[in-house]
């Protein structure tokens, strides 16, 4: 079976639910220039991923080759997803591929996609139809050289066409397209826009009229893929340009959390328009020695309290418990304390409600919350990172508790930073640096070097999750401008958004 699936125009969220489900169970994925290559990560690890687009300096696999490939894989009994940008049947040669499959007797299905022809203008704040402006929209390929004699594009008709015109593949021919439209009767003052890499973080939009938009695009060095929109609806962009108006639009944010943890912060910042550069500063792995933790697990019943100081601790605790063939019932009537809301949230995923959750993510605050509950002789198990602050265990001991500290995971510093981050640092393309713990600060300095961190901090805005992290930053001569009142990831993201929203006012 071959599925011709539309991948959408760039924003990976614009694939359809059906397309995504098929991609996730594909055995073969055949793709060419995709505006959203991240989608390929959704394919199963075992899937064969075949690129049939243009390679640098070489030609694309000819259409015949693609057709043969689809037929061969399908005949081998494999589930093939032919992933195509936008919608497969809009200027995508999807029709030709489907014909070929039909001829070869291969069953196929088409999963329409969100076409760039509609979505790219939409992300630029341009509705392709609007009752006040036009009831007509035309999609045209601008690929063809408009000066060629026997044009298949009906320029005469387009010149008289009063509706919205959307040209795809037309960057090279922009001056000719505009000239033809004016020559054939369209008002030279008709508003026009060219949108490059629409729906992505790199989207750029230029506007003008039929008379000057080609020059404006040229001055801005607009390159393919781009779309030309012609018509009164382009005016609406002034009030409707939502994608490029988000508070963090155009900002590059460095996220220094571990890979496992970065997603929440990245999602929140990206939703506000930021481009996130992940520089993992922590790799979560097993502790050097599971001995003390395993010993504690064996005699869980002797403890009165179990204390978690991070979501990583919870995940590692549960993983080890399950590995040993046990589950949460082993916790029996143990009381549970979580250092903050995120840790409590991850406990909830295992069906556990923490008995104590202070509002702030800080050892001192947890200690305060626990102090009325600890009685002399209380036995407490602290399941945490191998390297951590001693404030909590020391404070609990001072309260008269017996405390066992059991390392259940170790956070290590990775060896190097990803190449995209390296390139951005070199080019000075960093607007915001985020730090979510002292460990991320120490490791970032180790990875990048103190002087370079200071140089980056001087050109960027620095955001720290809370006072402990901030004071670690200050040890390296970096003063954060942003620190939320709550020491949580959502609060950090909100504080960053607010900071930049205020700057814009
Ligand atoms: N089947 C696709 C179109 C393929 S033709 C669809 O339905 O969207 C390729 C052309 O689409 C490009 O030359 C460009 O004009 C347009 N295009 C595709 N993605 C784009 C994007 N993200 N931004 C601007 N134009 C895009």
Helix vs. strand class = alpha/beta
Please count the helical segments: 19
CATH topology of the largest domain: Rossmann fold
Largest sheet: 5 strands, parallel
CATH architecture of the largest domain, please?
3-Layer(aba) Sandwich
| Beta-strand percentage range | 15-25%
CATH class of the largest domain: Alpha Beta
Helix content: 25-40%
In total, the number of strands is 19
End-to-end gap? 55 Å
Gross morphology is elongated
Q: Could you say how many structural domains there are in total?
A: 4
Bound ligands: S-adenosyl-L-homocysteine
Please list the strands of the largest sheet in the order they lie side by side. Answer: 3-2-4-1-5
**Average residue-wise pLDDT:** 93
What is the oligomer described by this structure? Answer: single chain
Q: What does it look like?
A:
The protein has a five-stranded parallel beta sheet with strand order 3-2-4-1-5, sandwiched between helices. A five-stranded mixed beta sheet has the order 6-7-10-8-9, sandwiched between helices. Helix 9 packs parallel to helix 19 (489-504), helix 11 (311-323) runs parallel beside helix 12 (341-348) and helix 16 (438-448) runs parallel beside helix 18 (467-475). It is elongated. It is 36% helix and 19% strand. The model has no long low-confidence stretch (mean pLDDT 93). The protein has 19 helices and 19 strands. Helix 11 (311-323) links the parallel strand 14 (305-308) and strand 15. The protein has helices at 17-24, 63-75, 94-104, 116-123, 155-160, 174-183, 213-219, 237-240, 259-271, 291-298, 311-323, 341-348, 363-370, 391-398, 419-427, 438-448, 450-459, 467-475, 489-504; strands spanning 2-6, 28-31, 48-51, 80-84, 108-111, 137-141, 164-168, 191-196, 204-209, 226-230, 252-255, 275-278, 283-285, 305-308, 335-338, 379-385, 402-412, 432-435, 461-464. The longest helix is centred in the last third of the chain and has 16 residues, at 489-504. It is an alpha/beta fold. It has four domains: 2-114, Tetrapyrrole methylase, N-terminal domain (Cobalt-precorrin-4 Transmethylase, domain 1); 118-243, Methyltransferase, Cobalt-precorrin-4 Transmethylase, Domain 2, CATH 3.30.950; 252-282 and 415-504, Rossmann fold, CATH 3.40.50.10090; 286-412, Rossmann fold, CATH 3.40.50.10090. Bound molecules: S-adenosyl-L-homocysteine (SAH). S-adenosyl-L-homocysteine is lined by residues 9-10, 35, 84-87, 90-92, 115-117, 120, 168-169, 195, 197-199, 224-227.
């Amino acid at each position: 079976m071959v599925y011709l699936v539309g991948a959408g125009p760039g924003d990976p969220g614009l694939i359809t639910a059906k397309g995504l489900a098929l991609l996730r169970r594909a055995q073969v994925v055949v793709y060419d220039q995709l505006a959203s290559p991240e989608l390929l990560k959704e394919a199963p690890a075992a899937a064969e991923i075949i690129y049939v687009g243009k390679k640098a300096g070489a030609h694309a696999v000819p259409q015949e080759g693609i057709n043969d490939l689809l037929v061969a894989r399908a005949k081998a009994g494999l589930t093939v997803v032919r992933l195509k940008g936008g919608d497969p049947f809009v200027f995508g040669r999807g029709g030709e591929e489907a014909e070929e499959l039909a001829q070869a007797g291969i069953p196929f299905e088409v999963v329409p996609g969100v076409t760039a022809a509609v979505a790219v203008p939409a992300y630029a704040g341009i509705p392709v139809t609007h009752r006040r402006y036009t009831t007509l929209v035309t999609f045209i390929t601008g690929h063809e050289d408009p000066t060629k004699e026997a044009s298949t594009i009906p320029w005469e008709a387009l010149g008289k066409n009063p509706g919205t015109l959307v040209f795809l593949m037309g960057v090279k021919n922009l001056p000719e397209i505009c000239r033809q439209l004016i020559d054939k009767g369209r008002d030279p003052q008709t508003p026009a826009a060219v949108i490059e890499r629409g729906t992505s973080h790199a989207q750029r939009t230029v506007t003008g009229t039929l008379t000057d938009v080609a020059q404006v695009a040229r001055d801005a060095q607009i390159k393919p893929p781009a779309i030309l929109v012609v018509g009164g609806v382009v005016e609406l962009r002034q009030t409707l340009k939502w994608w490029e108006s988000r508070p963090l639009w155009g900002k590059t944010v460095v996220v220094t959390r571990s890979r496992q943890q970065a997603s929440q912060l990245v999602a929140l910042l990206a939703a506000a328009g930021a481009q996130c550069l992940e520089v993992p500063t922590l790799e979560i792995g097993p502790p050097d020695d599971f001995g003390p933790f395993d010993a504690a697990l064996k005699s869980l019943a002797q403890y009165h309290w179990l204390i978690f100081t991070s979501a990583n601790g919870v995940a590692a605790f549960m993983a080890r418990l399950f590995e040993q063939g046990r589950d949460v019932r082993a916790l029996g009537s143990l009381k549970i304390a979580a250092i903050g809301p995120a840790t409590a949230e991850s406990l909830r995923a295992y069906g556990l409600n923490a008995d104590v959750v202070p509002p702030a993510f800080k050892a001192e605050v947890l200690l305060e919350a626990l102090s009325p509950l600890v009685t002399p002789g209380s036995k407490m198990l602290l399941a945490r990172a191998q390297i951590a602050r001693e404030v909590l265990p020391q404070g609990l001991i001072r309260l008269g508790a017996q405390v066992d500290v059991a390392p259940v995971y170790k956070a290590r510093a990775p060896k190097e930073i990803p190449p995209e981050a390296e390139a951005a640092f070199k080019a000075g393309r960093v607007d915001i640096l985020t730090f979510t713990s002292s460990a991320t600060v120490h490791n970032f300095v180790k990875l990048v070097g103190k002087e370079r961190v200071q140089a980056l901090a001087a050109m960027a805005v620095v955001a720290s999750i809370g006072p402990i992290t901030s004071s670690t930053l200050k040890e390296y001569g970096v003063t954060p401008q942003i620190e939320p009142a709550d020491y949580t990831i959502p609060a950090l993201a909100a504080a960053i958004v607010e900071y930049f929203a205020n700057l814009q006012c």
